[in-house]
Every structure is written in structure tokens, then in C-alpha cells.
Amino acid sequence: MTRFAPSGPLRGTYTPPADKSISHRAALFGAMCDEPVAVRNYLDSADTRSTLAALLKLGAGVEEEAGGVLVRGVGLHAPLEATGGLLDVGNSGTLMRLLPGWLAGQPGGVWTLDGDESIRRRPVDRVAEPLSAMGAQVEARDGRFPPLTVRGAQLTGIEYELPVASAQVKSCVLIAGLLADGSTTVDERSPSRDHTERMLRRGRVPFERAGSRLTVSQVDELELDEIVVPGDPSSAAFVVAAATLVSGSRIVVNGVGLNWTRTGFLRIAERMGAVVVGDLEEPGTEAAVEPVGELDLASAPLEGTEVEPDEVPPAIDELTLVALLGAFADGETVVRGAEELRVKEADRIAGVVDGLRDLGADIEATDDGFVVRGDGSPLRGGSIDARGDHRLAMLGAVAGLASTDSVEVVGMHAAAVSYPGFERDVAALLDGN
Ligand code: S3P
To answer: pLDDT tens-digit profile of 387-423?
Structure first.
């Protein structure tokens, strides 16, 4: 249990940890290359260590270098069956959903992916279904949950309409498409994070987007130059929320990824009154590079807002922070179309609603989101259970800094899944006064 007391302002310059989504992809795509790929600023966290461990088990080489890793790949069509067996994804949903896309295209290979208690509650039928349609044999517990067993096959390209706006499922099908005969098309109704697409473009893979339809074709090999991972906007969002809520704060965030498919929270926060100055990428931009930049932030009074379903995917991992800002804002804040939050590391709708209510918020759950009402005054405080979820743990900490009494976070250690240095970084900004 860790207590976070009301704090003085956050001041100074802050560099967030490396992006988790891009780190997973950099290691995974690196392992699919024939030539070694240097990944600079690879995230050092529990989740991204799970990815490196799985790739080692699959025969790739991973050398930790100062400030990154060198991935010695096995090639796209490697004889992976030689090192098959059980792959432990730990807590990582991204590894659990992306890796099967590669394994499914390895004829003769059999692997079982499993992980911790939380991952065993998260649906994998969303990847089993398209991979089976492409020709792989994929079995999940009760047809829906891990462990997930993948028997590779020569795949055939499909046209697949995503039933959920999920970058993980989209990426899984696109990766399988690299190994499938013909072309593979994924139709995404609502744009989700596009790091996989950007990496495919950089790997000079035949890849096209026509409106919401993404098409990839079979390739013999993959080639990637050095990858430099930007700072994670989702990790930075906790510090952004703290600087917005704690009166007198003024910080500069350096080296943060500003890809428009990830900056939904910053746009929502700005609409609520947050002072966020930065060069956010224009929505709809298609690119091969990941934009990186600086944000200037200052504390500000907030007003309630309505978040509609099309705003959900680019803010998916930060929506619990919208609830937190809403609890300090004047008026009503409503989030709709966010039922995916129920199947994250924890049920984040239940976690944030029960958690913030115990800290004094007027908040209710809906099937697909929540409604929170505030009068512009701060939360009282109390105790919040992280439920084993890294993002709920960090949310509790931020709530404590901005509270009147203090917040005890039960299970703060969960933060290490994505952001082991969170408490140290916040302490440095509190000392920067
Ligand atoms: C991620 C996609 C999102 C996000 C997760 C990381 C990714 O999940 O919540 O933290 O790296 O592709 P979904 O694709 O299931 O929405």
C-alpha cells in the first residue's frame, strides 16, 4: 500500500518512459527481420520484458545495449517449430494478441500462449476467429480465453471487418497477412493506434490504405532500419493529469509521441480547459514516422465534457483519467462507447467508478462508460484498489496528489507493468519547485 498526499505544484522538465505499444512492435518486427535491428529507447518494463523473453524462446537473439536493445531476428519464415512450446506473455495483452499473427503463419509449428491471472480473463477469440479464417488452427479455453494454442499453417489472405476498434486485433491480422497467400484486407470502422501500419511502411512492405480499408500483401522478407521509440503519451498522461489538477503546476514534457491516434486524451483535456500547448499531429495523417515533440502544461480549472464513441479509440488507455478530471471539473462529464474498458487489464469501468466514488466522487457506471458530476472542488481522498491494473494504480496516485486528504493505493506495484519509474519521476517534478 502506498499513500499519496496532497502535493505542492509540479514544476520542471519531464521525459516520459518509452512507448509500450511501439516497443512491443519494434521487438516483434525486429525478430521477423533477417538482419539485426537496433531499437533505441526500448521500454524497460514488465510487459516489454515479456516480449523479449518470448522472442528469445522463439530463437531470436536479444542483446541489451545502453539505451536500447539489438534484436537479432530469425526472419519472417523461420523454422520456428524447432523452439515451440509454452510462451508466457505475463500481463501483456498486446503480446497475447500480436504474436499469434506471426505464429499462425508457420506451418508445422505449435505454441501455447498463457499469462497471469488478469490475462486469463481477457478475450482472445477476437484473434482466434480471423486467424482460423486464414487457415490456422487456433484454440482458446472455452473458445474465448487464454491459454491460446496456435498451430501454424500456410495461410490464405482474407477480408476482415474488425468487430471491435482494436489496434491489437488489426495488427494481428496485418502481421498474419505478411505470411498469407494473396492479399489481406482489414476494415476498421473507427481508427485505432496505427503504429503497426507505420512500421510496415518503414519496412517497405506493400501496404495500402483506402479509407477505412487496410491491405497488406505477402512478403518474403522484412527489413527495418534502426527504430527510435518515442516517449509514451499514455504514461505521460498521468503526469499531464497531475499537472492539470494540482494548482500552480507548470511543466514541459519532452520527447513525447504525438501520433494523432494516441493524443485523444490531450484533446479531450484541452476541451475541458486544460492548458496543453504542443504540436499535436493532425488527425487523419498517414505517415511512416512517429512524430515526437514537446508539450507545455499548466494547471487550470476544468469543465465537464461529453466524449463520444468516435473519440474513444485514440484515448482508450486514458479514459479513466477523463473520469478523474471529470471528478475535479465543474459540471457533468460523460463517456460513451467505451465498453472495451471492461476487458482491459481489469474492468476499468468498474475499477474507476468504484475507486473514485470511494474517494468522494459523484460517479456512475453505464454499460459503455460512465457519468461523473463535479462542482469544481477537489476529491476528498481515501483508499483505492488498483485491482492489479497499472493504469488504475497510477490514477490513484494522481488522485492523491490533487486530493484534500490523501489517497492510499492498494497494489501500487502494478505500475511497473508499463512505468516502473513513475513514483521517481513524479517526486522529481514535486522537487522541481
Ligand atoms: C494496444 C492497443 C489497445 C490498448 C493497449 C495497447 C496496442 O488495446 O488498450 O493498451 O499496443 O495495440 P486494443 O487494441 O485491445 O484496444
So the answer is: 999 999 999 999 999 999 999 999 999 999 999 999 9
Q: Give the pLDDT band of residue 113 (cuts 50, 70, 90).
A: very high
Element (H, E) at 28: helix 20-32
How far does residue 313's CA lie from ligand 1's centre (Å)?
9
Burial 5-35 (b: 16+ CB within 10 A, else e): eebebbbeebebbbbbbbbbbbbbbbbbbbe
- For the residues 236-260, what does the mean pLDDT come to? 98
For the CA of 316, the nearest atom of ligand 1: 9
Residue 355: in which H helix or E strand, if any? Answer: helix 348-358
Cell of 56: 528469445
Q: Name the catalytic one among 19, 116, 317, 389.
A: 317
In short, whether 21's Cβ falls inside 6 Å of ligand 1 is yes
Residues whose CB falls within 8 Å of the CB of residue 424, separated by 6 or more in sequence, listed in order: none
CA distance 92 to 230: 20
pLDDT of residue 66: 84
